[in-house]
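subagent[fold] <- orchestrator: predict structure for attached chain, return tokens only, no commentary.
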Amino acid sequence: MKKFLIILFSMLLICQNAHAYRTADKDIPVDIVVNGSFIKMDERAFVESGRAYVPIRFVSEALGVDSIEWNDEECSATIKQADTTIKLFEDKNYAYINDEEVQLDANTPVINGRLFVPVRFVGESLGANVDWDKKYYNVLIDKDGVVIDEAKVDKTYTNDEVLWLARIIHAESEGEPARGKIGVGNVVLNRVASPSFPNTIYDVIFDRKNGVQFQPIMNGAIYNIPSNESVISAKRALRGENTVGNSLYFFNPRIASSNWIARNRKFYISIKNHDFYL
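subagent[fold] -> orchestrator:
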């Protein structure tokens, strides 16, 4: 299988040289969840014009297809599973299911040497139920008989961790730019990684060791429903995007009732209304 994927990747590159391709929107962090498990992928899924795309390798591994064959002359991939055969073409808006042509509502792009396919079309064509979780930006796929290999499960974060990180981001940085929202998420995650603070997102947010750490815990704003932007920023931070380095503290000097942070910690960066300190 590994040898086949290397050959497939090489062939895709040959086709890719002949065309220009759009860049995926990496700012919307989409996850694929199969039968309740987050799935690892070598290239992240993305949303474009309301459609979720996944690399074709994901189809073979997560949905248990029997084979994938690449035709270099046609720049096409053929997916086979039992009595179903799906043929998709690079950068085309049509496909074949068992030799019958069907129209797609968008083209299938090649990005970074990977053919991306519309997950709903392929999933449903292979007998899976496909749904969209608009709260967490997840594609939910359920299919009987699919057993997920533990090695393929992505344990980077859970929906619960996304929720609490998004809540503190929303409560602390509503109205701040994306960089500032991600920075607030970074501070929480930096504390999780620090031996001086609790080791979970929830416990860091509700830490009272040296007094309440975040004002939203006091005024109840932590329980407000986070905005879409806050959820996106939380997932971007959880995926490793960092705008504030190793900062462990932040505050708004214009409204803060105490300047303890400024007097005791090393300044790192300002992002709009927030100053971040190491």
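orchestrator: received. Logging for downstream: DSSP finds nine helices and 16 strands in the chain. Residues 2-14, 16-25 have pLDDT under 50 and may be disordered.
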